[in-house]
Amino acid sequence: MGYNVGDMRNGSEVLPSDKRPVILLLSDDMRMSSGIATVSKELVFGLCHRYSFVQLGAGVNHPERGKVLDLNDDVTQRTGVPDAFVRIVPWAGYGDANILRQLMMQFKPSAIMIFTDPRYFKWIFDMEAEIRENIPLIFYTIWDDLPDPKYNADYYASCDALFCISKQTYGIVNRVISKNHGDEFDIVNK
Prior knowledge:
CATH class of the domain at 8-135: Alpha Beta
Radius of gyration: 17 Å
Number of helices: 7
Strand order of the largest sheet: 5-6-4-3-7-8-9-10
Distance between the termini: 27 Å
CATH topology of the domain at 8-135: Rossmann fold
CATH architecture of the domain at 8-135: 3-Layer(aba) Sandwich
Largest sheet: 8 strands, mixed
């Protein structure tokens, strides 16, 4: 089944490709089989009618490091969304400031979304003021282990938005933020 611009998909209108904001997603390469990769793929496939995606796709010693892979046709075929725009830039590890700056200049994202343990992105939080000057930093968070990860409080506080993958994650993130940063955040439960 294909969709046309203006059709409803997943409860929202299919936007024309030139009206879809670009999201720069930093997570495991969505073509891989980790849990983070699988959820990243579902996120992209579920929202490709509203957003264009560029993913800095992490992998251990990624064999395709540095290439820019065009997944437009594959995503359009799998989702029925016309003119889907999805690129993956495979990377060994979770990136660095230089590749992020290159991708920001090349793709002009409307937001940067990270998805995995924030400690893998220490380098991004070291430059968060530079990023947030022009681009919101979003953290799609999954954390379901207790005790609450108080060591994540400063990472959470360095983001413009926190999206929680579950009620358990919401509770944990809310407690960590409330104890460390008061009521200055709105935390969104998926």
